[in-house]
Amino acid sequence: MSTRCSLFRPRSFMRSLLSLLALCLLLLSLIYGFIADLSPRPRVLNDIQTLHRHNINCGAIYDMDPVEVGKSLIIRRKHVVEDTDESLFNFTSDCPSFTKSRGYDDVCVSEEEKDFPLAYSMVVHKSAWMVERLIKVLYSPSNIYCIHYDQKSSPQFISAMEGLARCLPNVFIASKRESVVYASISRLKADLNCMSDLLGSEVKWKYIINLCGQDFPLKSNIELVSELKKLNGANMLETSRPTQVKKERFTFHHEPKEVSFEYQQLPVRTAQLKSPPPHGIEVFSGNAYFVLSRAFVEYTSRSEVVKDFLAWSEDTYSPDEHFWATLVRLEGVPGAVPRNQPDITDLMSKTRLVKWQYLEENLYPPCTGTHVRSVCIYGAAELRWLLSYGHWFANKFDLNVDPVLIQCLEEKLAEKQKLFQSATSNSCKG
Prior knowledge:
The protein is an alpha/beta fold. Helices cover 42% and strands 13% of the residues. The strands form four sheets. Strands 3-2-1-4-8 form a five-stranded mixed β-sheet, sandwiched between helices. Strands 5-12-9 form a three-stranded mixed β-sheet.
């Protein structure tokens, strides 16, 4: 009995109990901290850098670390509502605070970048913060950026775009804007409106690149400059002989009609055959996105042949997907691709990487985000694949699908910008 009692020592028991309580508190604090890390930091209007910056290790995401990738999936499942268009407008009401907080004042420009300015045509209609982040990751004071917002966009979005143009001296709103109808001539005209303004600007840009609001670069600005110099005046875009199905897009007259799904209006094929293309032009097929030299844009902007072809394309389906692909095949245009040259497919052209659902497993690894109309909206687990594939831009990205991927792309591109600048220039000019 006395032996049993001697094993129970009050002081020893209390010490053990306190140690157990301390351990429990430590575990609780760790769990709480982990949950807090997964949540975006509080909104602070005067410090935009804290907005939706997730506590994630992008290096580990790039290396496909299963723990960090799993953490990104937890963040994604929280369905964080991204910042509103109105919040960007409010922030740009104080331009000095906005440009300082977002780092526009500290952008380093190498001599190579300064001597090779780029122009951007950005046709956008929603998600103001996504547009801002796209501009920011591509931003250089030597470049120039034209924003064409859809006339149907919300007042909050339009105000946010106007705010960006007010705060950034080399960002401006297109002087003429379209009410863009999907797959219609208005989408093509939106880019043409920006092109006209960009040709009239004081910036003597070398190449123009067009983007939409769900694009994101896979190369930093200095890398793009280096790649574009290698083109030596050539253009970069898809241009292929059309399939029979695609030929119907421009051999029949199309009329805009109301439809019952998300686009509300679409060009619909009629039974009326169109006349052949003017000037004996052979029509090629491609996509809406391009990298074009200044010489090409200047030439086509004053060409009567091009004007006639544009007018002929008015009643076709998705004319932006054959207009540029055809023009680049015309004899005599700067950087022309000869008509007898083999097809340049979307995989060969580096302008835009798109992952199609029906080609996954065969040409691409599976989409780790989600699909919209058979197109992958990328997830964080595709970070390494995107950066190593070789294309200059990719589509599609969505902050509401995977904000971690966009944050990590921003971080990786900033690292590459500094690395390439240090290797090519001894100093930068802000």
